[in-house]
Amino acid sequence: MDVSLRGVALSDRKQWNPLWLGYLDFYETKLSEEITELTWSRLNDPEFNLYGIVAVSGDKLVGLAHYSYRPSSWAIIDYCYLEDLYVDPDFRGAGAGRSLIDAVIAAARAKESGRVYWNTKASNTRARVLYDSYTLASDFVQYRLPQTY
After folding, report:
1. Are 63 and 86 contacting, i.e. CB atoms less than 8 angstroms apart?
2. What does the pLDDT look like over 74-118, one tens digit per residue?
3. 65, 81, 66: which is closest to 114 by C-alpha?
4. Residue 137 placed within a domain
5. What whole-number distance in Å separates Cα of residue 9 and Cα of residue 40?
6. Domains in the chain: how many in total?
7. What is the pLDDT of residues 39-55, one digit of tens each?
8. Is 74 within a domain?
9. What is the CATH number of the domain that holds 53?
10. Sheet strand arrangement including 60-70
11. Structural domain range at position 112
12. pTM, full prediction
């Protein structure tokens, strides 16, 4: 099946939403509609540091990737954080995930970013096969504090 990539567009909202909800469901997470609306508006705001790429097969959105850049105290140039990556389960294994990662890497290279990085659950074994084909997982452990306000 042919998959092409492009930047997310305002006209994608109806098809983006089920992918976004599928992604959240995969990570057993629920976000308010307010957060979903904010994420959508940020993805479509050229002045905001959140970018979206979608994978398209025919006229159907089949995957998404969201990424941003952040400064580092360890480097002169920014790092690129691939925050969200999701492919419709019916289209997995056809290269859409790899294409989305490659597109984020290309965007980071064009911006001369110092690195691209992402997180996933240790139990996400199917995706980790793909991720391990790029690089091995780091040995860092992430800690999270709940909201403090």
Report:
1. yes
2. 999 999 999 999 999 999 999 999 999 999 999 999 999 999 999
3. 81
4. no
5. 10
6. 1
7. 999 999 999 999 999 99
8. yes
9. 3.40.630.30
10. 4-7, 51-57, 60-70, 79-87, 116-117
11. 4-132
12. 0.94
